Amino acid sequence: MTGLPLRQLLMSLGEPLVELQAAPAGLDVPVRHVSILDPEDPPTAAPGELVLAIGARGRAALPALRAAGRARAAAVAVKLDGPGQADALREAATEAGVALLSVRRETRWEHLDSLARTLLTGADDPDGPGGPEPGGPTAGDLFSLAQTVAVLTGGIVSIEDTSSRVLAYSRTSETDEVDDLRRLSILGRQGPEPYLAKLREWGVFSHLRGSEGAIEIAAHPELGIRRRLAIAIRSGAQPLGTIWVQEGSRPLTDTAEQALVGAARVAAGQLVRRRRELSADTRLTQTLLTGLLEGSTGPQSLATHLGLDLRRPATVLAYAPAATDGRDAELSRDEVTGLISVHTAARHRGALLAPVDSRVYVLLPELPPGLPAATLRDWTQETVDAARDHLSIPLRAAIGPTVPGLADVPASRAQADRILDAMGRGGVVPDVAALQDVQAEVLVSEVVALLQDRPELRDPRLTALAGYDARHHTRLAESVLAYLDALGEVRAAADALHIHPNTLRYRVRRAEQLTGLDLAQPQQRLLAMLQLRLPEH
Region (Disordered): which ranges (predicted)? Predict the structure, then answer.
């Protein structure tokens, strides 16, 4: 990967997101990769990397700067709390020989990560050694297109997808008058909802859907919105996004609308190609990931495809929705999958999802060594809580063991499945669990499943007791099981069944009389405790 000169990366990202604080090696240093350094990770870097030091402010960022300098990284990006921090970090960056970038406090890290990766992708050949197709666009071309439109219209440009997420934008100068809508959209990656609601109220989006040309949005100084032109990006009748041009300190050019028509057609070609590439890449990733989880494909294919380290720790999380109260099962699965993907990506940028039947598996590759089990549990619990709070869908989640490398991922998935299977049979109470939390419950559930599949292993007297209950509408089997679970404590068992203790004593004696069982015998008690857990009981 040849990389993108730091100078060009800074020009594309611009003042809305980052500001250069120090560049001891100059601005022609090539940036080849982007990495996210989590506060819990040891400070590491690689040659040519832009390191996003999340959560490291002030002196806490010094280890990241020193590690980046030793590794000959290109730059380190941090958020600053005050000018005093900038002075200390600039000095450390100069000593380490690595560039220092400060990130606006309002900027979302995942947004900066996405945009920087897009620019770096566009700086390199997307089609391998043979080179790109003649005239074929790359991901970074959207930024180039935005800058071209800015020159032709005399305005400030952003390109968004159909969900109002910013895909690319033009550079701004110190004399440009950027309004709140533009500034907040770029900092937050997406147009702020109060402004979007106003645009919907004014009919802007409906006009865009029905118009082939550019439309004008008048200035609203009271809302901090300047005059704009906008045009829909389409491929046939399919909407792909929108190009917005904000009027700055000077009026837009007379040919601005014509320029937008051409730009929308160019953008359509780029977005269609990007969708096709992403779709093909997503399908391949899903195939390789599913094969790895099932053990039918070795780890090398996925590692090569995604550039993963085979020897770093990994974990599989497994999610299964419980009953959806009559909701469309496919819709619920799509909603749950989307929610899991968002929450997991927020915690681990390399997370991979594979929906398989009614379950959703998450592979967390390249985990930092020694990641606390409590951290994985917290991540998983956040997702389960979000599904309950936002989708009203109860989720069960199992945490597979952390394995030493990708080759052992099938074992992690198998153990997560064991836990979910036990949850589905009612054998595990928590909604999030690892095997060490519920070892006994899982093993008992698996023994009960064996009895379910092997009728010859069952005691016919207990089978007869279940049949008696079914014919006479009695609850003898249930009462015996409650009595055994309470270790013979009659009052506790009766309270669990909401009956009088004498009623329970009668039912237990009646069950022994009908079947010939002797619950004073340990072996018979053990078998009854297992067999009476079968679903038909």
Answer: 120-140
**Fold classified for 141-275:** Beta-Lactamase (3.30.450)
List the structure tokens of 111.
């947004």
| Cα 358 from Cα 51, distance rounded (Å) | 38
Would you say the pTM of this structure is higher than 0.85?
no
> Cβ atoms within 10 A of the Cβ of 2, count?
10
- Domain 4-124: which CATH number of 1.10.1040.10, 3.40.50.150, 3.40.50.2300, 3.40.1390.20: 3.40.1390.20
Residue appearing with tokens 């002075």: 87
pLDDT at 332 over 70: no
Query: Which range scores top for mean pLDDT: 43-52, 281-290, 459-468, 518-527?
Result: 43-52
Residue 129 pLDDT grade (very low, low, confident, very high; cuts 50, 70, 90)? very low
At 188, list the tokens: 């937050």
Q: Phi then psi for 436, rounded to 5 degrees?
A: -65, -20
C-beta of residue 28 within 8 angstroms of C-beta of residue 5? yes
Every domain of the chain and the residues it spans? 4-124, 141-275, 298-444, 458-531
d(CA 115, CA 125): 18
333-370 as b/e: b if 16+ CB within 10 A: bebbbebbbebbeebbbbbbbbbeeebbbbbbbbbeee
* 497 within 8 A of 512, measured Cβ to Cβ: no
pLDDT interval class at 314 (50, 70, 90): very high
Q: C-alpha distances in angstroms, 411 versus 145, 319, 327, 450, 506? A: 48, 16, 33, 21, 48
Residue 433: phi, psi to the nearest 5? -155, 150
Show the tokens assigned to 244: 């917005």
Place of tokens 């970090």: 89
CATH architecture of 298-444: 2-Layer Sandwich (3.30)
How many CB atoms within 10 Å of residue 230?
23
Strand ranges for 117-200 from DSSP E: 156-161, 166-169
Asked whether the beta carbons of 241 and 226 are under 8 A apart, the reply is no
Q: How many C-beta atoms lie closer than 10 Å to residue 453's C-beta?
A: 8
Q: Among residues 402, 410, 415, which one has the least CA distance to residue 374?
A: 402
β-partners of residue 165 are 190
Closest CA to 201 of 212, 187, 217, 188: 217
Confirm if 504 and 483 have CB atoms less than 8 A apart. yes
The single residue listed with the structure tokens 């959560």 is: 55
What span, in angstroms and rounded, lies between the C-alpha atoms of 240 and 182?
20
Maximal CA-CA distance, the chain? 99
Strand, helix or coil for residue 396? strand
Q: Which two tokens stand for residue 343?
A: 């929450």
